[in-house]
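Entry type: protein chain
Record version: 2
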Amino acid sequence: MKKGSLSVFFSMILVAVLTLLMTMAECIRIYELNTLAQSYTDEAVESTFSEYNPYLWANYGILAIDLAYGKDNVGPGIMKTRALGFCGTNSNVEEGYSYIRMQPNACDIDEYTLLTDNSGQAVINLGSKYALEGLGAQLVDGIGGNIDIINNIESEDVEGIVNSGNETLTQAKNDQAQAKEDARNDDDPDTSPDDFEDPGEVEDNPLDAFGKMKESFSKGVLATVVEKEAGLSEETIDLTNAPSVRALNKGTMDMTAGNAVVDKVLFTDYLLSNYGYYGDEKGHDGLKYELEYLVGGNETDTQNLAAVIERILLIREAANYYTIFNSTKLRLESESMAAILAGFTGNKVIIDAVELALIGAWAYMESTLDVRLLISGGKVPAIKNPEQFTTNIWSLSSFANVSIKAKDCGSGLSYKDYLMSMIALKSNSELGLRCCDVMENALHATEDYANVSIDNMLCAANVSIGYTSEEMFLSIFGNSTNELGQYTIKRSKYLSY
């Protein structure tokens, strides 16, 4: 056996070298601890965000985490535990597994945003982002153009014009009848009942047809435009505890809006693609006429559909009134009838008032036919020309039958376009919260998500995870540079859908 020996000097050098090597190794390990801490944090947060609610994504294209996780929990408490669990799995700190041996021990959700925050601004942002992925700039411009076309049609109080003209004519008739009666009963030889012309009559008085249609309208607008009213949805929504009404949970992070004009167009397109409406129900649970609810905000599908139809009717009335009033051909017909009905007065002011009433009645009937066509899937030009009219002022009553529609011109605006224009007039805050109403109503109509609260659903968060790790290479010398013999590391990750 060979013997060896070390000098004291060499031993001292060896200890110094080993200390240097171990210090370098520990420094490298500390660097890796920080790097892997961020990596584990990223992986844990991303894994947590992968647990989004599948129903909202599949049906509405909205990504959000239910913070209750099927329980009664409110706030991000369970999410913290889930993130720590994912982090522990990813870091795998079993002793001897690696030189890392880093233990996650704390998770904080520093800031987070809920879907309902800032009046549903998160829903607006997520919907706009969803739509942007499938839209080009030219399509955005096209959507905005259709909205402008409809909303730029000047409103006209057609009903008021008709009622005013009808009252004027009725009063003129009463005055004429009274004058005739006075002439019959007085002793003045210079006056005779024959001096007073009887009011003219037409076989189908547009003012009478208007009155009958308005009476039917007041009993139920849908009955005047929908052939098979029995087939309408009867779904309802409880508005006593809807997100747009109740006090909501709030997140801790500010949710800012983007470009208001672009977002409105993008979000409108998102709604038209993902929310159901009459004629294109999406098969979602709960309300079927979801877009109509965004416009009307009423408790039942039929009430919301009626509200939309009433608004379309008002728009069409104004457009058709404009066409008749500015058409030489159509004005001649209204003037001729006004002369028959009010010519006995010899008063141009009265005759003109009656003519405007006739134009209003005509526009109303044509508009009713327009709406029938729209809800059956047809299109109507924003402003018709005289050749595109279906009704005739001399026989308006014949068009009262609900099965009669305006002739389809093959181009123009659809029911969907009118819905789009009405939605565009709504404020983002009102739209955002009503969208939350719709989504929560759909969730509650399912067995799996009956207890989910839309104001407990997270869509963005800044997550911090803390780690501890004991010294390894320096500990062999028995001189810890850390009083507790541990390193404490904290890393953050911001993530939003």
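Comment: The radius of gyration is 37 Å.
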